[in-house]
Records
---
Amino acid sequence: MKFSLCIGAYPGKDVIYHLEKIKEHGFDGLEYYGWWELGDLKAIAREQERIGVGISAVCTRSFNLIDERQRDVFIDGLKQTIEACRTLGTKSVITQTGQVMDGLPRAFQRKAMVETLKRCAPICEQAGIVLEVEPLNGIVDHQGHFVQYSYEAADIIDQVDNPHVKLVFDVYHQQITEGNVISNATRYSSRINHYHIADNPGRKQPGTGELNYLNILRAIRDTGFDGFVGLECGYTIDTDEAIIQFKRDIAANL
């Protein structure tokens, strides 16, 4: 597996600083969500080449998959994002599902989501991009988010039935929503393109809470997963020291 950091790991520092730190720590990529904030993408691409690591994931321009009235907006934003990915060499695009729409049956919203993803799939396939749908917890951080549970997320991916539409499995969110992390993180591994990790409670670096990340990451590794695991977390100590501890206590022992 490959490890990535997320923008904001070094508060107040820009994308180039983050990339240089990722290279220094021997990690493999940077998740930079709002790619449209980067400015000159060709200049960023040149800096990536100089440093030797790049942006491994970005986000879509909008996050609403369940409102069919927003489908064209979502697809247009996805196309813009894919053009940015071509310049940056990025292969993963993260999206969320949007908030539950009151007054509409859940089955109707879910059907709209599947149809939107089916229309996105050939666009992503042609570009060599994977669109990653991310379930989020609705208890602490994202009340009202439409898809929260692993089983439902996996079923939606199965209905879309295209390898260019998969999941981000965020261990922090799924621990809050449903627990049973190792079972779910491995059971649905064929539908997962990317993992996010942070400890719970607090969403800080692994090793600060209740999750046994050595066991979790070993189990994920044993499925044959060789993609990105992103540290999407805050830090209770200096970021560099926290990453050193993570590499020493967890990554080195996988």
---
Amino acid sequence: MREVLVYHVDAFTNQRFGGNPAGVVPDATGLTDDDMQNIARELNLSETAFLTPDQRRGDYRIRYFTPKSEIDFCGHATVGASWVLATEYGWKTRVSGISFHTNVGVVAVEWVFNQEGDVDNVFMRQVAPRVRNTEVSPEEIAGIVGINVSDIESNYPIRLGYTGNWHLLVPVASRAAIDAAQPHLTELAEMNAKQQAVTTHLFTFSQEGEPYDIYTRDFGPAVGIPEDPVTGAANGALAGYLVLEGILNSEQRHSLRIAQGDSMGRPGMVFVDIVPGDSPEIRVGGAAVITVTGQLQLD
């Protein structure tokens, strides 16, 4: 019998039982693909991150599994894994950050410290953003996600956005409409699979006085996630879309606060920095809280 150390980490929050829970296996050395898929299924969280130390580089290979399948990138599980390494493995006292080698390239992570020297937030530099057109009409997407077609914000285009995974980005006129969405999950899974999108991401800009800049919800039934509470990958793709589509000035630096998870009773906050350049640099960050540590037993 083998024992595997597993952490349960709530990401994009500083409150236990908020944000998005991720599984983290800090040392996946010797685990097979089937082992990792079985562990992810057993934990039954939206994603579990599996880390394998790379002795040559001094950093880590990281892989991500939903209960259904492997995916190329996951933002909140990266935040969770970074938090575990910084706080439980002493990395915060050695270096200011670390690099993860993912299926889509290197994701560099930096720790941000408070005045007491504790980790306050972690920020990951996602891979270069991309967008592409989609043939999905406002009428079709409105019907599938369960909102009125009049709730689609016509001033902004529906696009597929990417900073590691493709996400279908859908502009919505109000938070109320997003909260009222009741997606038809089977149809949505079929549409996402056809678009090669991991999730469908609804977003709206804040109204005056709200403590965030953008509000979102995210649905991923094609990869076994009916709804994901707070998403780093999808919100990173959204940030890239905003500058690549000219909604935000690509020559200026932007700092965004993106609220998500309220509709699921797991509110969280994603901080996004957009740094101008030949290709915009998307930095996505937030806090995390470790809620469970345990030994998972394998045959």
---
Amino acid sequence: MLRLWKAITRTLCAAVLVAAGLAVPAVPAVPAVSAADGAADLPRWAWAVVRGGSTPTVSYQFGTWTSGLKADATTGDPGQVLVRFPQFGLAAGGVAHVTAISSSPDWCQVQDQWPSGDDLIVAVQCHRYGVGPVAAPWFSVTFSYSGKYIHPIPSQSLGYVRWNGSAVATQFNSSAPTAVNTVTPGTSPGLWRVALPGLGSTGLAGSIQVTAVDPAVPARCKLGGWSATTAAQNIVVRCHDAAGAPLNTGWNLTYHRANAVVWAPVAPYTAFAYTFDNAPDTVSPYLPTPYPVSYNSVPGSIDLRGAGSGLRRVSFSSVNVEYGYPGNVQVTAFGYGAEFCNLYGNWTEASATGLVSITHACYDGATRVAHPATVTYVARDR
């Protein structure tokens, strides 16, 4: 906890610093938000790729902030990076997801998030299995705040929950303003059952991301189980400590169907795709079943295949052909054990065809293994 409070102190001092020297691409025409305009209920969404604590490359970041601003990052204690999202201070009730980018058994977690003036700080901590904090963390991060209830485009669904270790700290459900997501701790450590009413489906449909949130100890969380009825999505979250033992901790969860992992309901400001690698022993290209666990927001194919020992490659064709910005990828492991997944390297995008190619790795301890995972991609509009 001391480490996090030191980070908060440094952040409050550094919040007045303004990064400079890079032009920011135009932002879609959504209302800008700040503490001054009091628009606390407008939805906000953002993403970035951060490497070594340096300011995220402009082309790899995007947010619904005023044009000319950008996210930045500063290093804290070893393995810690403080990501600042401008004008997001009133959106502190949203959720962040983070995925390590590494060819080693690394994972990242959120430590905490807090407003700093008009801005929002998300503290990220990265670890390497069997080693400790990562010297120069490289990770992909998203943040989403729903704002007040806005009726979605028909068939689009999104729900999120932030569990603070003992209670639901914040939640959102797109099915109705009165819908309440619930969390029931299991009888054993590191296990929770989450119900998202009103977001049900006939069989599995959509995608899920889970990220550990802990200010004091190394933690990682995963999708531990998933079933659906027409009334609700029923999800199991499992969390583990650095050694793989079950751990009671906090976590963020987002469920999204026919919608990006960030909530963008007012217009199609994003291109997105997702899939569920639920047959990771399959080396040749395949499309997971049931088919609603895969989705491409533009006409284009999806396939998964082996890419080497414990490596998997996801291809989303045509998804970024009109946009040309790198977007963002998140990966979450699925299953009962302590396995975890990360991005094996940065994803690639072919500007001429819009093909997005993602390689991810999963680990059992320090050993790469074939393991089920959910993968989601989002890119900004032009």
